[in-house]
What does this fold into?
Amino acid sequence: MKNQKDKNLITIPHSRPTLGPEEIKAVSDVISSGYIAEGSVVREFEQRFAAYLGMGHAVATNSGTSALHLALLALEIGPGDEVIIPSYVCSALLNAVNYTGAAPVLGDICPQTYNLDAADVKKRLSDRTKAIIVPHLFGLPADLDPLLKLDVPLIEDCAQAAGALYSRRRAGTFGVASIFSFYATKVMTTGEGGMVVSNSQEFADRINNLKTYDRKDDYSIRFNYKMTDIQAALGRVQLQRLSEMIQRRRWIAEKYTKAFKALDIGVPPTDYGHIYFRYVLNLNTDSQPWLNALAQKGIGCDRPVYLPLHRQIAQKGYPVTEKAWKNSLSIPIYPSLTDGEISRIIDAVSNTAVDL
It folds into this structure.
């Protein structure tokens, strides 16, 4: 009877966007204007985003993957070059490097943070290494200082870290460039979309040239990677709400950490700059039984990385990544969670810890 009741529960999804009437009005106003392609709203969104970071230039794109692809091209990376990326990350990074014809070199991660391990990266450097892409995974800033000391161009992947802080500065302000993703369930959203950020006017000009293929006097391969004013209208409102959304994430994370500290599981680091895009538990055991049990309780959870890149391209090694993939569990954390849903999640995780 208990199992039947659990099956009838309304499932709390692992992720969902946080949208309201302000976003609806902003998008409606753009549609009513009759100008829905890339235009003045995109320009304003770019300016506001650059100002938020305290950076000189921001160029909007149609996805975070596109932003990363263009950043690599603007650095003139191509065949014969190598780009170091972590194995414990989504395949977008692997795709972007492969788009350029460069060779991806996978690195292992730090066991406490799941971010790229600078000591491991150092071992993989060669005279062909032209860039390191460092994600701030799950909203926790990577330790950038040792990576910056390697004297290789650093691209910060802030797809999960808009608003995060490292050394009291916003993530995305340390490398030669940074990229952001505004996918539907990211920290802030434009539905689909991305941004390249840099302090270099020349770099920004290259990105703008590469992302717009038409009305050019000379021909070279360019891309239709533009954002629309509809998306940018959504982004402007989300940017205005970003601080309050991060505050809510941190409040939820604090509730979780307090509730789970007595359990025999690891909780995320409580770094001051962490924005908790994901709340990832280290179960110290295979997460699959937990996924099954929590699904029965109506709690949508997931492995935070679907499959490590080294597995996707049939490489061996990466012991820290392997352990993180096996043992990690991401539970729902987003601003639109209600207090009642948060209590349900805490009870379900706590009970599952006892049951398993």
